[in-house]
Write a structure and sequence with these properties.
Layout lengths: L1 H16 L4 H21 L9 H12 L4 H20 L27 H10 L5 H16 L3 H5 L6 E2 L4 E4 L8 E4 L2 H13 L10 E3 L6 E4 L2 H14 L7 H14 L4 H8 L4 H24 L4
Antiparallel strand pairs: 1-2, 2-3, 4-5
Helix pairs in contact: 1-2, 2-4, 5-6, 6-8, 6-10, 10-12, 11-12
Length: 300
């Protein structure tokens, strides 16, 4: 078992040398470690982890523990790992995943943060403290720019160009920087926050509260951001809006108002437009059909 863990570390080192971001490496590590933990629970050792039957048993076991999308993520992490083993001159192990098909993920419509819900959420957040203003800024950036949670937490003041109304997401998913336009609402929220910002904005923009007072406790984490949204949504009488629901809401607003799919791809930071099309084309058609039915139902 230790041997497999060592091999995983070699794989991750190889991916790091290829220039993969720390976030991507963390994603690989989490999914590959889930496979290691399965082998430990099942008492599988030696070279038995190299068999397709073991991998299939792992995926079946994961279906009982995690969501279908997470099972698919396990598969997507394991496939390049075994391909790497196959190509590496020190291993040359035929991949047991050659004939395996990826798990199917049900096409559940993603939760979207509607404009009404965002307005209600913002209206419930007061203007009294730097924490309130920070949270209003976070919600506004999520809603207008569709950033991932980690991207919001990593923002610095220098990333905002107020003249062009463009912010730069540094080392987004995939490790690349990308420009994202923003609306005047973001400028207003950011300038209000800077008036009470308790630290040095040039170093860390999104700070974490220490919990007991209005002091700071370092940079805001993704977990802290999610907890904030959960707390704020509950106070507003709303179901929990996770960070991705804002991305989905922005994408669908853009598409339903006639935006090109390539624009949505650029803003969301998808590396391939096929990812954007696969995710949103189905729901774009659904939205068009709903609008058509509503209009045509009014009579000729």
């Amino acid at each position: 078992m230790q041997h497999l863990e060592d091999v995983i570390e070699l794989f991750l080192r190889s991916k790091s040398a290829e220039g993969l971001s720390d976030r991507t490496l963390t994603w690989y590590r989490a999914n590959l470690n889930a496979f290691v933990h399965f082998l430990q629970r099942a008492g599988i050792n030696g070279s038995n982890w190299l068999h397709a039957g073991t991998l299939e048993a792992f995926l079946v076991s994961e279906r009982e523990r995690v969501s279908p999308s997470t099972v698919a993520a396990r598969f997507r992490a394991l496939r390049p790992f075994f391909s790497w083993l196959e190509d590496h001159p020190d291993f040359r192990i035929p991949s047991p995943m050659r004939q395996m098909k990826p798990p199917k993920v049900p096409h559940a419509q993603p939760r979207q943060a509607s404009g009404h819900a965002v307005d209600r959420l913002l209206a419930s957040i007061p203007l009294g403290t730097w924490i309130d203003l920070r949270d209003r800024l976070i919600v506004t950036v999520l809603d207008c720019c569709g950033l991932r949670a980690a991207e919001v937490c990593g923002l610095a003041l220098a990333d905002f160009d107020f003249d062009e109304e463009i912010l730069i997401v540094r080392e987004g998913k995939g490790g690349d920087d990308r420009p994202v336009p923003f609306l005047p609402e973001v400028t207003t929220a950011l300038r209000a926050f800077l008036l009470l910002h308790p630290g040095i904005p040039g170093q860390t923009l999104m700070l974490s509260a220490d919990g007991g007072s209005l002091g700071t406790d370092g940079a805001l984490t993704v977990s802290g951001l999610r907890q904030m949204l959960s707390r704020r949504c509950a106070a507003a009488g709303l179901p929990y809006l996770n960070p991705h629901s804002f991305r989905h809401g922005l994408a669908m607003r853009l598409l339903n108002r006639g935006a090109d799919m390539s624009l949505v791809q650029a803003i969301l930071g998808h590396s391939r437009i096929a990812t954007t099309q696969q995710f949103y084309a189905r729901w774009l058609v659904s939205g068009l059909k709903k609008q058509y039915t509503e209009v045509m139902g009014r009579g000729r």
